[in-house]
Amino acid sequence: xxxxxxxxxxxxxxxxxxxxxxxxxxxxxxxxxxxxxxxxxxxxxxxxxxxxxxxxxxxxxxxxxxxxxxxxxxxxxxxxxxxxxxxxxxxxxxxxxxxxxxxxxxxxxxxxxxxxxxxxxxxxxxxxxxxxxxxxxxxxxxxxxxxxxxxxxxxxxxxxxxxxxxxxxxxxxxxxxxxxxxxxxxxxxxxxxxxxxxxxxxxxxxxxxxxxxxxxxxxxxxxxxxxxxxxxxxxxxxxxxxxxxxxxxxxxxxxxxxxxxxxxxxxxxxxxxxxxxxxxxxxxxxxxxxxxxxxxxxxxxxxxxxxxxxxxxxxxxxxxxxxxxxxxxxxxxxxxxxxxxxxxxxxxxxxxxxxxxxxxxxxxxxxxxxxxxxxxxxxxxxxxxxxxxxxxxxxxxxxxxxxxxxxxxxxxxxxxxxxxxxxxxxxxxxxxxxxxxxxxxxxxxxxxxxxxxxxxxxxxxxxxxxxxxxxxxxxxxxxxxxxxxxxxxxxxxxxxxxxxxxxxxxxxxxxxxxxxxxxxxxxxxxxxxxxxxxxxxxxxxxxxxxxxxxxxxxxxxxxxxxxxxxxxxxxxxxxxxxxxxxxxxxxxxxxxxxxxxxxxxxxxxxxxxxxxxxxxxxxxxxxxxxxxxxxxxxxxxxxxxxxxxxxxxxxxxxxxxxxxxxxxxxxxxxxxxxxxxxxxxxxxxxxxxxxxxxxxxxxxxxxxxxxxxxxxxxxxxxxxxxxxxxxxxxxxxxxxxxxxxxxxxxxxxxxxxxxxxxxxxxxxxxxxxxxxxxxxxxxxxxxxxxxxxxxxxxxxxxxxxxxxxxxxxxxxxxxxxxxxxxx
Length: 823
Fold this sequence. Notes:
10-stranded mixed β-sheet; 9 helices; 8-stranded parallel β-barrel; mainly beta
């Protein structure tokens, strides 16, 4: 009927009526805040995560330790502020008690703490960006030091009065050093109305009110209870005549939520609806935005969800879910930008079928038809790479007479998030997306030999790690251990097999993969943080139509299996990046006169305008990049700018993970940037460890895991220890230097749940240029090699590329590659 799109997603079996999520575009909640995208210890070092992983997310707040704090080996606030601020970050909460080494913090009394407070305040006050830091004097005082959560009222009052005295003392101490300081608190581990009522009255009376109110929401019950906590807190303010304070829920979510788009949308929607800031909790390792960045630069499903969240513009509008404030149910948030003439809906958290009903679509903005674009961000594990979210549907539909459009979504996955974009329909017809056949198979449902099914990440065990279907198969450590999956594919051809796994063996582990009992091939799995910290391995298969048995049998070491995904592959991976959904600067205009192509109209760039596309590459190498535009555009990548003619492909070198491509033009209507390819190495230069000239203590070390049988070890920790490669460039210009490296530096701080990995750095010098310090994240083992890409300028002919670190160890180096940006 009019106003209803064809159903999208997998065919639905006979089931109950679809759930209904309603969006009212006429009911504004105020400007999009994007406050719920923060992270505790989300950054570990300058460069971890990478600039290209940070900038697109428009992060409003992060929480880190004071400079030199003993709680963790990295994540110092002033150190990471460099990369955070240069990538558009908002403010940094400084967890002042993380100056202490022990957890819970050693209670040495206020007299021990005050000199530490002085030093922290002096360092922050002296920083040129001091106004962008927030002091958090106490962390979880309801449990640590003060025991403010005791049931006995007399004991509570005694503990409370001690805390209030110390709060006033520390507050005034900070202000004496930094008069303009913003101070946050009381920062309870959970919400306590008794404490907050007393605290607000005391702080108001003594003139020590925090500028930002903070507490933590760290249980699955928060998805049910937060709205009540928020409403109660605001009522306390009103009772005392306190103007509404900014709120930051500076720790939220559990392990089972982090990295999972369908879980994250539930948390983010309730925080955004109430216009509060919120930072994800730090349960594991620093430097990966709390489980949303793979390695340093690679998106997973959670990253793409937050990229969508960062792309909301205008005002948020009212969303009515099937069941409000209910754990693990369908939830969503939505926005309307009247200047861009776009509406967006983000939803997820429930399996099955859903009708998304968008009401009050203004005809003055959208006209009589709209194009609806539906995409899915799936769960790919904490360390599983996720390509650009797959577009499931592009459909133009007439808006019903009552201003309503219904978007039917069928066969939703509980762990996925979905985005619906509505734009004016205009003339023409959008190109239907090519959605490949795909099927998923849970390991626990397969035939298991010498293995065990484990339950993970449930509501009752919220700090268990997420697992597909809440189960995985482990203990595959016997000689006969194997898992046999029965799969059925629709036609002869190539298929991509994605294996969700865990490997904590401390080195690459293997399994033997066979099809229908045929000759096995070895599948090698890189290390992961632990056996439940899920990653994803991609393998390519040739299969005939019909049923097959895919067997994964024990190889070297032990691997845990969660799920396999089998997807038909007809061509090289490809994605179209819509221009009207790109980040912009300047004042480009939006042209929706035609919905041809990607269906979302065109972004009209003129002098001073810029669009930035976030382009995913599965590996380092060359890709085919084609602008769909009305006139030539200029593309800037890795510090080089090239002219691109509409419809004519360019061969560009992309690094594994996210690549930010800036687009400018004198005047051009840009519909999309189309990118395809597998990452060809044709034309790139490659030099193994043995090609380097080594000095000082640096030496060549034999290794079965290195690509050419050896790596450069013992590099650095002395001004004399260097590795120098001579690279022969066929032409002068801008190249990407890709360093294949490994290291596994750690410092155990005695935490029950944090894995305190450390980064290494190397000073890289090209020719006679100045050295550039590059950060290399821990690779989980000494035998797993990751890559970091560094733009460099080479002259034609021989060039010296030197690695050094005079003061600390550099990473082990397996090999280097160099690809000219414009191939």
